[in-house]
């Protein structure tokens, strides 16, 4: 793809999808609008964001798509299931809070297929971070455009004192002003996020409130996370984009707001969605085709998209001895999952105190990383709260130690909630549901080169997901959506069809003088 700066008239594919005028457009290879003649067939394995993006791009261009998802619902780690509360009331339990940042251009493009105005999303007014010491940072008053965003954050934050500022090591921080995906990994991938933070000499409180909160959003302990990934995150969300750090959330549970409408969109374009269908293997078929094997048998396809989590991808590769080449298979086998994470959702018989934010990041409260008051912004939870006089809260613990006891950790989260919001001590828990998972990719120190790219040694097999190395400034859900579109584009290019036009935040530091400063004086 060719990367160009945004511009162009209304209605053109250059039209800027956000407020940042430095956002970058990535054009697909030239080709037809749709396939002609007998359409090729593609199996998309995995119904998370990456698989849905790939399936959408392919089906819209006339490709015959069959989407296989092992779970009974779509959405992957942004999926949810229906449960029953003790009184029989149906409710939704998801796998945790997800922030839909304004710089998630390609994810938003996917969602606009069903809701052009993105009315299914609503913005939260603040993104507060609170430390157990009493310090609290907020992004509500921070300007969105760098470098004023960083300067204002430091000026407004109670975490920075004059002595703290004097102790900073600016030369170590300068590389953050000129982050480019390839070079930043060459420079920092061998360093842990923890050691990189040490080199900056940031005050402990600011480190906990700002840097480690970002690090743990990758479900990883900073000692295990590549400093390059953390630097890339700061570029995407803070230092490289003027979209800011405030974000949107779905107005209703994920299936109703996002995935059910997208499944209907796929059906309108002729795609077949098979939930509760686990793919066992991918084998060579006749005339260069691929046999996708599930419990019902083997079916032949012209190409395959593997949009799986780490364990899912490794399992399919292990059971498919002819897939890829030995070097690629070895790299896939070396991928690692992040430590377990815990999501606890509580239906309480009384409201939380007035003025509590819809989302609060926390630090210093044991394993508790954030508290979401769902009844402040999600329709289903708000309706339950209005009818009962209660509230619905969700607690998250990222990077739980692998040897932790689930029941103990669940109790600890509730105990920490009582510290954060003391009024909840008096509340009776009407219902509680918990999700304990360990299926997020770990971006280990020195692991960047091992991560698979979209393309594999077999041109008819591509990979998508947030574990994929794209060499673009994207992360988390946006990396999943972007890689799904890229995977579809790689296949469409084989058939002479144009893929998706994509956008990213700027792919380098925003300011030429600051980039020059980083290159000349940045610590090496």
Distance between the ends:
31 Å
The total count of strands amounts to: 23
Taking pLDDT < 50 over at least 5 consecutive residues as the criterion, the unreliable ranges are: 1-14
Strand order of the largest sheet: 10-9-18-19-20-17-21
Rg over CA atoms = 23 Å
**Number of helices, counting only DSSP H or I runs of 4 residues or more:** 16
| Mean pLDDT value | 90
Overall body shape? globular
Structural class: alpha+beta
User: What share of the residues lie within helices?
Assistant: 25-40%
Largest sheet: 7 strands, mixed
Query: How much strand content do the residues show?
Result: 15-25%
Which key phrases capture this entry?
524 residues, alpha+beta, seven-stranded mixed β-sheet, disordered N terminus
Q: How does this model look, in words?
A:
The chain is an alpha+beta fold and 524 residues long. It is 32% helix and 20% strand. Helix 1 packs parallel to helix 10 and helix 1 runs parallel beside helix 15. It is globular. The N terminus is likely disordered.
Mind sketching the topology for me?
Layout lengths: L1 E4 L18 E4 L13 E5 L3 H12 L3 E5 L11 E5 L5 E5 L5 E2 L3 H7 L9 E3 L5 E3 L4 E2 L10 H9 L5 H6 L2 H4 L7 H8 L4 H8 L3 H13 L10 H13 L7 E4 L3 H15 L3 E3 L4 E6 L5 E5 L2 E5 L1 E4 L3 H9 L7 H9 L6 E8 L10 E5 L6 E4 L5 H10 L2 E7 L8 H15 L8 E9 L23 E3 L12 H19 L7 E3 L7 H10 L3
Helix pairs in contact: 1-10, 1-15, 2-15, 6-9, 7-9
């Amino acid at each position: 793809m060719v990367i160009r700066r945004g511009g162009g008239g209304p209605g053109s594919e250059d039209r800027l999808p956000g407020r940042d005028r430095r956002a970058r457009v990535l054009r697909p290879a030239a080709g037809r609008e749709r396939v002609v003649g007998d359409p090729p067939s593609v199996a998309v394995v995995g119904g998370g964001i990456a698989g849905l993006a790939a399936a959408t791009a392919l089906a819209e261009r006339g490709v015959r798509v069959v989407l296989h998802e092992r779970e009974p619902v779509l959405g992957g780690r942004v999926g949810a299931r229906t449960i029953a509360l003790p009184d029989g009331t149906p409710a939704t339990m998801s796998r945790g809070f997800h922030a839909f940042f304004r710089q998630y251009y390609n994810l938003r493009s996917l969602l606009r297929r069903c809701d052009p105005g993105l009315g299914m999303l609503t913005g939260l007014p603040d993104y507060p971070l609170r430390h157990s010491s009493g310090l609290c940072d907020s992004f509500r008053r921070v300007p969105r455009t760098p470098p004023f965003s960083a300067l204002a954050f430091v000026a407004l934050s109670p975490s920075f004192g004059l002595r703290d500022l004097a102790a900073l090591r600016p030369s170590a921080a300068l590389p953050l002003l000129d982050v480019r995906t390839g070079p930043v990994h060459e420079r920092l991938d061998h360093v842990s996020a923890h050691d990189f933070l040490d080199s900056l000499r940031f005050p402990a409180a600011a480190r906990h409130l700002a840097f480690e909160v970002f690090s743990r959003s990758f479900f990883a302990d900073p000692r295990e996370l590549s400093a390059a990934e953390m630097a890339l995150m700061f570029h995407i969300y803070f230092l490289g984009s003027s979209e800011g750090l405030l974000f949107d959330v779905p107005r209703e549970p994920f299936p109703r707001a996002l995935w059910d409408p997208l499944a209907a969109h796929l059906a309108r374009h002729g795609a077949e969605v098979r939930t509760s269908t686990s793919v066992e293997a991918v084998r060579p078929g006749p005339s260069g085709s691929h046999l996708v094997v599930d419990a019902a048998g083997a079916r032949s396809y012209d190409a395959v998209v593997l949009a799986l989590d780490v364990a899912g991808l490794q399992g399919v590769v292990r059971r498919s001895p002819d897939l890829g080449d030995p070097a690629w298979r070895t790299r896939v086998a070396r991928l690692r999952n992040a430590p377990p994470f815990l999501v606890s959702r509580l239906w309480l018989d009384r409201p939380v105190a007035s003025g509590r934010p819809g989302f609060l990041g926390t630090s210093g409260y044991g394993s508790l990383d954030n508290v979401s008051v769902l009844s402040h912004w999600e329709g289903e939870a708000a309706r339950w709260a209005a009818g009962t006089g209660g509230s619905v809260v969700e607690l998250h613990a990222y990077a739980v130690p692998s040897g932790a006891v689930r029941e103990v950790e669940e109790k600890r989260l509730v105990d920490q909630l009582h510290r954060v919001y003391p009024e909840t001590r008096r509340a009776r828990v009407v219902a509680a549901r918990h999700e304990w998972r360990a299926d997020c990719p770990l971006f280990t120190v020195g692991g960047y080169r091992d991560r698979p790219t979209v393309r594999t040694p077999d041109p008819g097999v591509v990979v998508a997901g947030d574990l994929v190395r794209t060499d673009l400034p994207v992360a988390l859900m946006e990396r999943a959506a972007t890689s799904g579109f890229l995977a579809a584009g790689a296949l469409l290019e084989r058939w002479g069809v144009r893929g998706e036009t994509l956008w990213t935040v700027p792919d380098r530091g925003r300011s030429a003088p600051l980039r020059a400063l980083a290159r000349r004086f940045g610590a090496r």
